[in-house]
Design brief:
Elements: H1 8-26, H2 33-72, H3 83-90
């Protein structure tokens, strides 16, 4: 991920969303509270910096997912949202397409 192409102010504003997205994905509740929070976070990222902010946030989520799978050696797809699921939830927000 090349963050040099993203405005520093956008990176700073998106920063707090990274931990919120992490907590929301751990709920593993695709149709309930977790999904609603992931959707809210996508909308906030879009308001902050459009597609680039959303991509930055999604890339961090993807890296975190890979790290958890590698670290724990678990099938976490049943316990947390995968990056692909986040992408589907965000489909239609601004320029984001799954």
């Amino acid at each position: 991920m090349d963050i040099s192409v993203i405005d520093g102010d956008v990176v700073q504003k998106v920063g707090p969303l990274i931990s919120r997205l992490g907590r929301a994905t751990l709920r593993g509740d695709l149709l309930g509270t977790g999904r609603s929070e992931v959707l809210r976070i996508g909308n906030e990222a879009n308001e902050i910096g459009g597609f680039q902010a959303m991509k930055f946030l999604h890339d961090f989520a993807a890296m975190g997912f890979c790290d958890l799978v590698d670290e724990k050696g678990l099938d976490l797809a049943s316990e947390i949202f995968t990056p692909a699921e986040i992408s589907v939830i965000w489909d239609g927000i601004g320029e984001w397409r799954a």
